[in-house]
Design goal:
It is a single chain. By secondary structure, the chain is mostly helical. The protein has 5 helices and no strands. Helix 1 packs antiparallel against helix 2, helix 3 runs antiparallel to helix 4 and helix 4 packs across helix 5. The relative contact order is 0.05.
């Protein structure tokens, strides 16, 4: 990593640090996928990473949100940055709620923690 950072920094300047970090993350992900495949090699599941891919509806929502924010940046940011920020915040909340409601284990986790916090407040 350090060698790659040094070479890329000499080649392209400060952008080289970003590129070296991206390469480092890519290498780490590749190694992790290899370890997961070795660990679950004897399992009946063909590819345990298949569950990491988002469902089509969440993927569509993410792509739509990205498109809306890109258009907002192009057409609204220079006119009034606060409007662009508000649109981004609203879309962040929508995507977060969609993911939490779609993924049952996240919803149950959040619900249990909220109930635990409410229970503590009633005792105090």
């Amino acid at each position: 990593y350090l060698g790659l950072t040094w070479v890329l920094t000499l080649a392209v300047g400060p952008v080289g640090i970003v590129l070296a970090n991206a390469a480092n993350i890519g290498i780490r992900i590749g190694i992790s996928v290899g370890i997961i495949n070795q660990t679950f090699q004897e399992c009946r599941l063909e590819r345990p990473q298949r569950g990491l891919y988002p469902d089509n509806d969440i993927l569509f929502l993410l792509l739509s949100t990205g498109t809306c924010l890109q258009l907002s940046e192009i057409y609204l940011y220079f006119w009034h940055p606060a409007i662009h920020f508000g649109i981004g915040a609203l879309l962040f909340v929508i995507v977060t709620l969609a993911v939490v409601l779609k993924e049952e284990f996240i919803f149950i986790f959040v619900l249990e923690n909220v109930r635990r916090l409410i229970g503590k407040e009633k005792k105090d």
